[in-house]
Amino acid sequence: MTLGPFLFMAPLTLLSLIALPIIWYILRATPPSPKQAQLPSLRLLENVDPKEETPSRTPWWILLLRIGAAALAILGLAQPIYAPNASSNSDASGPVLVVMDDGWTSAQRWGELRSAALSALAGEARDTPAHILLTAPRALPVDPNERLDRAAFEARVRSLQPQAWAVDRADALVRLTESQFRPGRILWLTDGLDPESASPFAQSLAELAPLSIYAAPARGPVALTRLSADAQGVGLTASRIGSSEPSGHFVSALTLDGAALATAELNFAAGERTAAANFTLPPAALSRISRFQVTGSATAGTVWMWDSTDRSRRVGLVSGDSTAQPLLSDIHYVRKALEPFATISEGELTDLIAENPDAIILTDIGQIDTEAQAAVSTWIDEGGALIRFAGPRMAGPQVSTRGDDLVPAPLRRSSRAIGGTLTWEEPQPLGTFPDASPFAGLEAPEDIRVRQQVLARPGPELARRTWARLADGSPLVTADRRGEGTLILFHVTAGPDWSDLPYAGVFVDMLRRSIAAGRGEAISDEEGLYSPALTLNGAGRLSQPSAGATPLRAAEFGAVVPSEAHPPGLYQGPAGTRALNVAPEYTPIAMTDWPAAATLLGDTEARALRLGGVLLGIALALLCVDLIVALALAGRLPQFTRSVASGALALTILALIPPGDAFAQTSFGASQFDELDKEIAAALEMRLAYVETGDARADRATKAGLEGLSLVLFRRSSVEPAAPHAVNLETDALDVYPALFLSLPENPDPFSDAAVARLNAYMRNGGALFIDTRRGGNIGGGNSFDGLDQILPGLDTPPLAPVPDDHVLTRSYYLIQSFPGRYENRNLWIEATGAADKTERRGDGVSRLFVGDADYLAAWAVDERGRPLYSVDGGDVQRELSIRFGVNLIIYILTGNYKEDQVHIPALLERLGEDEGVGDFDAQDGVIP
Amino acid sequence: MISLSTLRADAEALARQLPGLSLQAAAADVIHPGAAGRKRSGSGEQFWQYRRYAQTDAADRIDWRRSARGDEYFVRETELETARTILSWVDPHAGFDWSSDPGRETKADRARIILLAQGIVFAKQGERIGLISGNRPPSLGKNAPDRLAEDMLRAQAEQLEPPRAQALAVIASDFYDGVEAWRQRLAPLANTCRHGVLLAVSDPIEHEFPYTGRTRFSRPGSTLDRLFGRAETVRETYLDKLAAHETALTDLAGQMGWALVKHRTDESALRGAASVQAALEQFGGKA
Questions:
Q1: Complex ipTM above 0.90?
Q2: What is the fold of A671-896?
């Protein structure tokens, strides 16, 4: 039923409006419920007649409120629709064809297009069928012949989503003509762009049937069309449909998981159709960006996927020396400098060349052997960048007179040491970078000193090949082009042995620019297949690729137009990821010359408003108001308001609390900070540490034991340890602790491989590990360390032996005969001295591993007042002996072989012939200084 | 209802603030209202008179000290003392054990505290204290206040059973059941006890009547309820009725020869206790 611009879907419901007067009468007759009050003296009022016993009337405004709510509810249930264009199209005859542009350009105003589509049947007869034609090409297109009734049409329209690729109107027109379908009326919902295809399309539709057009061209930026990246940052270009007003937007740089790393402004000047957004980001951050997105815009066009093509370089590292101490090696500095922005692989030179990296860095390789040399030369000719660092081997006399020719300039045979006792010169600072060098523009810090370098033989080419020189003019970096590639030589070591350069920030930039001299992206994989890894949907969100997405050849990037088979997104292939964007170099042009026969619909005409829900909502709100008013009149509101107020307060507080991940972030940051603090604290003050086993009781006992031992050390010796730390083998820095204590609980969980590997490295670098299995056992029973190898799989264990009687442990501070813990007569096992070859002994013959089972830590454990916590087999005497052992142990760990050497002093002095006064120095019973 | 320990503590605190009660020994022989000299010889501690020795007296009753001063023998006699009895009663009606404000103690609790405080003072003076219609007879001595407190908190009898012997009675209630009804109830008691105190405890809200609007009133402990469309219209009437009720109550007390003490729970308990004490002392002096 139509009533003016309103359309009622259930007009019979309006009959219930007749019931309104009855409702009014009933409401009027019912008084509000009285307040309740208790009064013991009520008997006094026994015979009193109240002056006004009739129920007070419901106030008129409450009546109005309730009647209004009832009326609105009835109107709402009648399902009215506001459709101003409903009556104008009543003369339509035959089915309605709805043509929708569902390309990526429609996504921004998709909601409007969809609601316009929903009202297509608003003014039609009840049984008018609808047909749908979509212009974005699909493998299985919607058949225009498919007849949809009202409900099916509505469901279908609601399920439509914009596609991530562009429309093909010519193709749609072909489909329509092939279907032989004759519509009675056509409604075209279009993005209003691209007049080149839109004009003929509209013309053809208008010839077919009466045509109405609703155009919703995108507002604001339509697409990101170009990206330009350089070493300093990234610039993005966006375009909009020509309009004269200036407008401001923002572009966010997002990581793959959607975190925004940076935001840049995008300002369209008045009259300009394009605008640029520039990001200035450190390289480490740039390398994490995977896409750019116009903030607040959800279309595939306003997302620019960024692939690894122009940021991640692949670098191979070859090191001349392999030392056990990674922090001291040259390659460490190179790796740290490159890690943020390059993919690093290490290995032998020939293997690396097979991987075909952008650049290979050699640190102090004296001579490249002949067969590798050929391979390297070929690789450089094909465009690789070989970066070499000098070093003792390169400068040393072992370099054959031939040398290898893989240096930019011939070198002198020895290195030059600047500064030092035997030279006149001072260590040299960096000079300025020559203008022709790729390093030009870098700032050379003044506090860098170069103490040693290899020298190039002067030659006519040398000046041209120099990329950087010292203040005195001698070359620091030389380079030479070989074929497509470049050969670069740093005349100093990559480590700090020869110069301060590796400490400086400029070192990172020099390395980056050197690597950039390589060819960049490998281009030999023209035939490589890139399969879609993540694709954009029409709303600009990343999703898993649909079944229709097919792989692309590398050569096809740049030429292919995004479609259902090749949706925009990230493609994974042999040389990293490549991006396919929907709108590179796209210029949006608005359609202006619509065919004269077509009716252009304005916003209001195209839309129909369903009012039912709104009316019912207002009715419900009125009823809520009525409820509150009724409660207020009944005198129950004070409590009510209080609870409401507290509820509202709670809601407000909830709203004010930042979302959970903000908390997570801050707390994560805090924990990182704590960790750093912990390392600093451990590095600044000597302290004992224990390994967390995950068993709270055992850990507590261990901590108390170390506290007790620390206390005794503090009182009795010059060792003054700070409070012990608990360390996690996998995450904490271990090297800052002189000794780690591992006290195993009853059923310990095995440690991970990573933890054991770090423990091995810790012991190899001089740390001491004390393992207490806490098993105890009978007198005379052997120690059982079963299961230790399961708990610490792969622990680098040297041969162990019980402590010999005359070992330093028995006299490093106190003279002791046994090593009791809570249990008596247990053996302590240490590295067997002398059993292994001398050369394999670690730590100067000082044992780095102590294994016992007498539960030492419990014997040392004290509470916060210094009172012992656990009972000990032999009472206080044994506890004291155990503590003395603990003191000896720590002194032994801290002093290394010093104490052992002191034992030999009498013998040494005797041998020197200085007998006087030595006789009373008896190491056997005196405390060794 | 108030707990035993709270009641006891409050009452003790209150009793400490009250001056010692002096029921003067002016009462006639027929009444024995409490421990006071009866102005005749008998068993007691105070000296009364020396009397000539008679043949019937036992030899050990001779007061040798007095007799040594002359030729005759004298017997020392002491003044007769008896303990007076003070009986109390607290209205068990639910409307009396009620308070308009949960933070304030109920009228009945206030009455119990006052009565127990009086009981403590009396017990120190050596009087007998107890409850009307109580299970236990009135008692003397240190333990008497404990017993009184326990009995008070037990369920109390509705009816007022007249005591067997002469006693001072203190009746605590709000007397809202109507003056005539109370006259009937108190009549048997008034026959036995010549003197007594009516302690009328009321809640402040009963004097203020702050209700407005449509209100349904109910009386606690009964099914009586009344609905007033506009409660503020009956306020004047109510206050008039209340004043009339209090006047009638004073008259009733006067007719019985008793005293009326009015007390509101928003006043301090000390004030109520002092008023009751004054009324009781007055009886001691008058009689």
A1: no
A2: Rossmann fold (3.40.50)
